[in-house]
Design a protein that fits this description.
810 residues; alpha/beta; nine-stranded mixed beta sheet; 26 helices; 29 strands
Length: 810
């Protein structure tokens, strides 16, 4: 037990190690604590071969346990006395001192973050600061609201103020507001009315333009003031300080949290997010002007941004009490760009990433170095695999990896810290909150130092030499803004060979998704308007010029938006897929994942309407296919966009020359029993029989793909005219509508009657061609001993069946 480490995590103090241990044993299973910087329960449990429920003290003393106490096991194997013995050794080994210190520091930061991000029902701050100035005139900015009752209530609070030396600026829809003010009983001549429309930031900027000097307060929609607020505000406000009131924040009339300036600095406020209100501030108008005034490009988060800049100004903060703010009803997730939570991400990114400084620092970047920018959330296992593949793929190259831990739980953050503390090529950057892919990737880039940057998902595995191939293409082609590898699913089929478009209001899609990778190689399509950021390499200078990914997009279409902006950088600018580079992506195969967010689709269409790239449908011909049109789904709420997917077919064609000249050229899929192995990096088959069947078919002008187990039923198999299943340990159901052949291996008695009946032709040895499992009515081809002759018979049979089903090929 490392008592100090445990105290940092819990925020408590214990009289002895035993007291700390008893506290740990009394915790519920979901609580995330560890007894020692080098012991991580999550790591240990991940290595168990038995259910976690069976883990007990005896396990920790078992030398046959097969796993270790924490993520330093590669250097310190489990000893004869089990994981606890290993932990004792690690505790006294000087080489782990830096790791222990880093993990402890990470725990300290995590505890600090937890205090910032206090949950619902957090303790209210009651501290106040004394007055530093006498009463004086103050201007109150009052934006109008959609509900007259809200404005009436705010004016009632203004009338109740004990400090009466005020004037007000009402801004927004002033026609209706005049009537409300007239009915409030307040003197109308104390009000200035400023008509303004647009987003809230422009409305507030219009009001501030009316205030030249002196203190100013903000009685915004949804806010209520206690009678003492104005007096407390003006007496705590000066040229060197401003007043910040402890504000109860609620939503739907339910308390969420209370915060005050005593609890928050600019970083803490940034990470807490948008549950803040300008109603809590009284500040000198001169200070607002000095820090740049209201940023009118922030949609609905202008108050959040201004408060962060006030806290960053270096001025003193004088605390008070008496403000409450209620947010309007809103859905769980933003549904349009009018939702302030969309703009919150923009504000956070603005204060996290200093693009101007990055631009100044471009000459200091290391020439030729590849910086891998990898955000991760709540994961260390896939991240560890991805980082290992990157480092292994470039043993002699100058590569660095910047991991952004995007608000993960303590155990994940601790494991990542311990894994890479002593790895010079890897840096772990902690972010207190999950700022989504856009800002997480930008933050990783901001911490990088290479001439080239690749944005890489943490669920990828990079093939050897792939990063160098991407860098080499960028180095030789200045018109290429960015490149992606051929991305494959774990089963070896294509995840994306690039991004295709089909004109206005149609969301882009992955080219050749779920096709055999041989289709991508055969097509040879390399140039695209956009590629995917699952593995996107660019020059650092271009990333800086484009200001990275736009944080308005929330985990969808930010990569396409970045690429379309990149196409505007210079003449003939474009993106490419480098087919010589391969990356496996363990992404879900769910259709439409790219455009799953209604908000992202609407934002993308709003930004790029009238400027969508031209249709890529004609380019399917390079793959021997034809895209007839696109399907359309149900309209979505925001901008009434409909999801769409291309309808792709393989047109009939004739063999131009060779032994089968003038006959139909069919598409054949050979189904093999082997399981795809990522470590083979794309080798489809090592079976001589499969290679010979494929070779013979190709000599006859046929198109051939190979499907390993796991891809026997890929979604693109409807394009296949004929299938040849090599008998294996798993039965394969043939593709409906395709001519099907079963090539037996060994004794065909292992074939069930149902399986045999499902094929158009069974290829078998003569002496076993008729068995109880292969009925007399089944068409059987007795092997001749020549694979070429047998394949030629299959070809004749396939052409005959296809012609009878579809009619003769023109």
């Amino acid at each position: 037990m490392d008592r100090r480490y445990y105290e940092i995590q819990t925020g408590q103090t214990f009289s002895s190690d035993e007291a700390a241990a008893r506290h740990l044993m009394s915790r519920t299973r979901g609580e995330d604590f560890s007894l020692n910087p080098l012991f991580e329960p999550e790591w240990l449990l991940a290595g168990l071969s038995t259910p976690a429920e069976k883990l007990g003290v005896a396990y920790l003393l078992d030398d046959a346990a097969g796993t270790s106490c924490g993520p330093v096991d590669d250097r310190f194997p489990v000893g004869a006395e089990g994981p606890l013995s290993q932990l004792r050794s690690l505790q006294t080994d000087d080489s782990t001192a830096a790791i222990r210190a880093a993990v402890v520091e990470n725990a300290r930061r995590f505890a600090e973050e937890r205090a910032w991000l206090a949950p619902v029902g957090a303790k209210r701050s009651t501290a106040t600061d004394p007055a530093i100035a006498g009463p004086r005139a103050v201007t109150v900015v009052i934006p109008t609201s959609l509900e007259a009752s809200d404005l009436t209530e705010r004016l009632s609070d203004l009338a109740a103020q004990t400090h009466g030396d005020w004037k007000a600026v009402v801004v927004g829809d002033v026609d209706s507001a005049r009537d409300v003010v007239a009915g409030s009983g307040l003197a109308v001549d104390r009000f200035t009315f400023v008509a303004a429309d647009g987003d809230p930031s422009r409305i507030l900027a219009a009001a501030l333009a009316q205030v030249a000097s002196g203190p100013v307060g903000f009685l915004v929609a949804g806010s209520r003031w206690a009678p003492s607020v104005l007096l407390d505000g003006v007496t705590r406000c000066s040229g060197t300080s401003f007043a910040w009131f402890s504000a109860g924040v609620s939503e739907h009339n339910s308390d969420l949290v209370a915060w005050s300036a005593n609890d928050l600095g600019p970083v803490a406020l940034r990470e807490r997010g948008i549950d803040t209100s300008l109603a809590a501030v009284v500040v000198e108008a001169e200070l607002v002007a000095e820090i740049g005034g209201m940023d009118t490009d922030l949609g609905g988060a202008e108050d959040f941004d201004l408060l962060i800049r006030l806290l960053s100004s270096g001025r003193g903060v004088r605390a008070g009490r008496g403000v409450r703010h209620t947010f309007p009803e809103r859905p769980v997730r933003p549904r349009s760009t009018a939702d302030p939570r969309v703009w919150e991400k923009v504000v956070v990114s603005k204060h996290l990433i200093d693009w101007e400084a990055l631009e100044v620092g471009l000459p200091k970047r290391v020439a030729g170095r590849i910086s891998v920018c990898m955000p991760t959330y709540e994961d260390w296992s896939m991240t560890r695999r991805a980082v290992a593949a990157v480092l292994d793929s470039s043993p002699d190259g100058d590569v660095e990896v910047v991991i952004v831990d995007n608000g993960s739980r303590r155990s994940v953050s601790s494991i990542l810290t311990a894994l890479y503390e002593d790895e010079d090529r890897v840096r772990v950057v902690r972010s207190p909150r999950n700022h989504n892919f856009s800002t997480g990737s930008n933050l990783a880039f901001a911490q990088s130092s290479g001439e080239f940057a690749i944005f890489l998902n943490n669920d990828t595995v990079v093939a050897p030499g792939s990063l160098a191939a991407l860098r080499d293409r960028l180095s030789e082609a200045p018109d290429v803004v960015g490149v992606q590898p051929l991305l494959l699913y774990p089963d070896g089929t294509v995840q994306t060979a690039g991004t295709f478009f089909n004109g206005e209001r149609i969301m882009p899609w992955h080219f050749l998704a779920s096709h055999p990778r041989s289709d991508a190689y055969a097509a040879g399509v390399r140039r695209f308007s956009a590629v995917t950021a699952a593995a996107l390499m660019m020059r650092a200078s271009d990333v800086v010029q484009l200001r990275g990914f736009d944080p308005e997009f929330q985990n969808g279409l930010e990569d396409v938006d970045l690429c379309l902006r990149g196409n505007l950088l210079r003449d003939d600018a474009h993106f490419e897929t480098v087919l010589e580079s391969t990356v496996f992506h363990h992404e879900s195969k769910s259709v439409g994942r790219m455009n799953s967010s209604v908000l992202n689709r609407g934002l993308f269409d709003l930004r790029w309407r009238g400027r969508y790239p031209a249709s890529d449908l004609p380019r399917y011909t390079a793959a021997g296919l034809q895209a007839l049109h696109t399907t359309a789904g149900t309209p979505q709420a925001f901008r009434l966009l409909r999801t769409s997917h291309p309808v792709v077919v393989r047109p009939p064609r004739m063999v131009p020359d060779g032994p089968s000249a003038g006959r139909p050229s069919l598409r054949w899929a050979i189904k093999v029993d082997s399981v795809f192995d990522e470590t083979t990096w794309g080798v489809e088959s090592t079976d001589p029989l499969v290679d010979e069947i494929r070779s013979v078919l190709q000599q006859h002008g046929q198109e051939v793909v190979v499907d390993q187990r796991g891809t026997h039923y890929r979604t693109s198999d409807y394009l296949d005219d004929a299938t040849v299943t090599i008998q294996g340990s798993v039965a394969v159901s043939p593709q409906p509508g395709a001519t099907s052949f079963l090539w037996t291996v060994g004794d065909p008695v292992r074939i069930s009657p149902d399986e045999a009946h499902s094929y158009d032709l069974v290829v078998a040895d003569g002496d076993v061609g008729r068995t109880a499992a292969v009925p007399a009515t089944q068409s059987v081809l007795t092997r001749t001993g020549s694979v070429a002759d047998d394949v030629t018979v299959m070809l004749d049979k396939a052409i005959e069946i296809v012609s009878s089903r579809r009619g003769p090929v023109a």
